[in-house]
Amino acid sequence: MDSDRRLKKGEVIAREGEVLQNLFMIKSGQVAVLSAKGRPSALEVSRLGPGQIIGEKLMVSGPYRESYTYLCMTDAEVVPVKGTMVQQQVDAGSQFVKVALRGIIERGQNIQKQYMELLSERDNRPCPDDHVAHTFGSIAIFSKLRGKEVKVTKVEKVELPAGIEVDYMAMKQFCQRVMTLSPTRLEQAVKLLTKLELAYMHYEVVDDPKVKAANAKKSPEDQEELPKELRKVIVRDLAAVEKFYDFFQAVFFKSQNTEALKVDGKLTAFVAQLVKAGEAAAPDRSGIVKLDFKKLMEGIQAVLGASSVDYFTLLESRGLFAKRETLPTGTQLSFFVAEFKDALVHWAILKEIEKWNVKGSVEMEEEKKEAAPSSSDVACAACKEPLKPQNKFCPNCGAAAAKAA
Hints:
Shape: globular
Helix content: 40-55%
Number of strands: 21
Number of helices: 12
Number of domains: 3
Largest sheet: 4 strands, antiparallel
Radius of gyration: 27 Å
């Protein structure tokens, strides 16, 4: 055994995704067992106390990738024990002891897994994390199966955009009966895509005989407007919706990289500047652009301001990579522009899902209100967030506020 470790409240003993090589026996304190699994906030699965063990799977296997994070909820004391030492002691025992121990550990893991599923089912947010891929995947699948490609058209003096047009009532029935997706969640998801200009919702007047009969008895100025109903949805960028749900399900259900689903305002502003510079350059056959690193960073710094943030490490934590190469003429940065553009779309959708879960519904007019600051306010040059006169830096993305002329 190694010497005891004394930990303060808030310290982490082991993290989700970390390769565990030691067991930890808890001598004192309370430890929460947390599962993030791609969630913006971790879910508490259970609590451990004195006499209980972290990493018991090492008794019957070699080093493994931990599925949970162990967080000290109080000051705690633990005793680290090398996994190899425990395995040697288990191997020295009888076959019955080894089989029984494996069965007990597997049974405990199964119970914990079932409990987590029950907790997930009780998630009463409008769009829980484990339903995101299902929700947006249902929209993409139906649009691909039943949608028809349309060009820009005019209907009753209203210009409809190009994209994949679907009958909304048919989509609602399909998603409810085949995909078991609630009509409310479907409508809110379509609104979210419309807000980001990835879809368009077309409403048509409902021919209501009761309203018509009532209006016939009233003067023109007192007549009620006929109700409108959502009849068509045009998915303006089906590829973007498909890429998003494919990205989300791959990260949430298959990957241990939970950072990829967290939206960072500063990183978003940085990537937006990278994409802007990349689109202005000529890509090679693979879609990769090569830029002068020094000039690029000077240009970004002029917009976002000086920062100690290591953006490239943050990019790698999100699965995005930009290659820096030293040449005789200077340092060159190369990256795949389309991949970075896709990331901006993914983060925009994730940010709106967070707002949806907090507010209970998608607010379509929110961006318009934010885009119209008062005369005493200015907008951030990087993310368009309204700024107060006293703001030196954007509270959303961290960019330096432009100086008044």
